[in-house]
Amino acid sequence: METFINQVVSGLSSGGIYATLALALVMIFKSTSRINFAQGEMAMFSTYLAWMLITAGVPYWLAFLGTVALAFAMGAMIERVIIRPLRDAPALSMVVVSVGLLVILNSLAGWIFTYTIKTFPSPFPASAPFGLTFVSWHELGSLAVTLLVVAALFAFFRYTSLGLAMRAAAQNAESSRLVGIKVGWMLALGWGIAAAIGSTAGMLVAPKVFLDPYMMSGVLIYAFAAALIGGIDSPAGAIVGGFIVGLLENLAGAYIIGDELKLTLALVVIVGVLLVKPAGLFGQVLVKRV
To answer: What is the pTM of this model?
Structure first.
């Protein structure tokens, strides 16, 4: 029983990280109707920036907030400089550019920081919480940070004028322009927030998988699965899908398929959802007359 509880808690902790990155994917998709395949590498590069700050002696949480700010600036700059000129280009152009951005960030991280695996510190105690051996402080802390990020985003988009403007720009850009909303800047803000959310996922997962330029490759696949399960255009679905994928990964890996095939399971989930229910659990089903 203790092993089962351990797998459930660990699955919820991992699921929170997948949900965070899936939420970043959904934000980009809602604003551009495109998938950002470089989201994981953007998170990885941001995590290296956090590692630099911490290594230089900056306190962890100050480095955490500084990295989120830097990631936000990086995401907004990518939208303004790289993505904006492609706004009228075919969908395949965005795919090619995002894959190219993935390769560039991965190679740049390897060139600057080398491909040597590095340890990334956790801000949470190493001891067992409350004397419980089946859960760690890092797992509980990661889950708490995820829920805090989700709550902050919900409040931002629900109760602030800027958040409402972003939602309007994503839903109907033309009507938003007519009422004075600067849609271009709303898109840049969306990319910045998505990059900031992704950096949070990177810093939470780095103590578990270690730090190297390929650290987010598997995490991004789990995040894709989470986004598709919940609905690629549903932020709430991304959160639910993340926890579903985290639980499924841990329980199936422990009791059914083993750790070696856990990533394969995520790929099976992606294909299965696309075949059976492409809109996901909470996504909108769009019908077009041809």
So the answer is: 0.89
